[in-house]
Amino acid sequence: MSQSRVWHPFTQHALEPAIPEIVRTEGAYLHRADGTRVLDAISSWWVVTHGHRHPRIVKAIETTAASLDQIIFAGFTHEPAERLAEALVNLAPPGLDWVFYSDSGSTSVEVALKMALGYFRNIGAPRSRIVVMEHGYHGDTIGTMSVGARGVFNAAYEPLLFEVDTIPFPAAGREQETLDRFEAVSRDQRAAALIVEPLVLGAGGMLMYPARVLAELKKIADASGTLLIADEVMTGWGRTGTLFACEQANISPDILCTSKGLTGGTIPLAATLATDAIFQAHYSTDRKRTFFHSSSYTANPIACAAALANVEIWNDEPVAERITALGALQAAGLRRFSDNPFFTDTRATGTIAALDLRAASPGYLAEIGPKLRAFFLDQGLLVRPLGNVLYLLPPYCITGDELDRLYDTIEEAGERFGSKP
Q1: Is 106 annotated as a binding residue?
Q2: Distance from the CA of 87 to the CA of which of 14, 219, 344, 360 falls in 20 to 30 A?
Q3: Residue 224 is assigned to a ligand binding site
Q4: 294 annotated to a ligand binding site
């Protein structure tokens, strides 16, 4: 391959080695141009659920592309979007009756934030504050950076970001502090919405908290008239053990964001689901109350068809059983680290497993992260640590033997790179 002109995401090109080319994907594997294959232990940034190139999703894309490509979605509609919206309303927590399409997790959250502010403006009780959870991540657009954790990732863009109110992460034993802080900031009736990643904070370090905390946050939000936005971009489609993480708290958010696994990870698509009350606040003969948001590729028919195929897989195949089995395998794999001096804070929620490597210099930008990533890739494994935080978030088709290989290599990484307490 000639010199690449591609600028890769989250990549410091001055420090990275040559970037390998992938020529084919299948199941749990990426096939490299040199003939070797790489076990995809992170579902290619958490998007691939059933496995790469699931034949039913591929077939749906091929069939739809033979008759439809992009159609302007302002003023027109099409069958894949209509059928998918009906399916999503039926699958989502009750009360989420309207579906607004976009094309990525970040845009689905931007849509949610605008819906929340528009709702209060249109009902004549404008609120301007967004409440966020410490260590949260919701995307890399301006609005989503504003509601995510501040740091090196967005320091250069600080002048563009809006102020938010932050509640602490509900760490074990300190959950009440989170609830008390949210109750305090919501009491003044300025908060339009609380946005959270339900049960698991992904990019913040795979931090996990119990469903009862999420349920209590919803109670406080309801009492103060604050909307709850559930960012299920990563946690949705089975990752936490249920179709949506909110199910485990037995709550229905006011707005739910979904992407990543929506199409099984095959093609980009996102959706923001909202209650009828939020839709009705924008429904008017006054055009100024229109929800002013779109993108050129809203409700792409081919992407919607892929998502419909994904829904059919959930309906027809034993996906829930696969998720339960994978969760049990992850829990078993983590048990071998209970007495390992190189690791701490082993944790799992559903199919997601994580543990922290004891390192002399922890943190996302520490040298340990790239060293670990290179070490795993040399072993034919795609593991992309968050600094010294190692996590496995594999597609549901991964086998027990493949997981054993991953955990064996994690043990080896601890011995090579870890520090004892």
Answers
A1: yes
A2: 219
A3: no
A4: yes
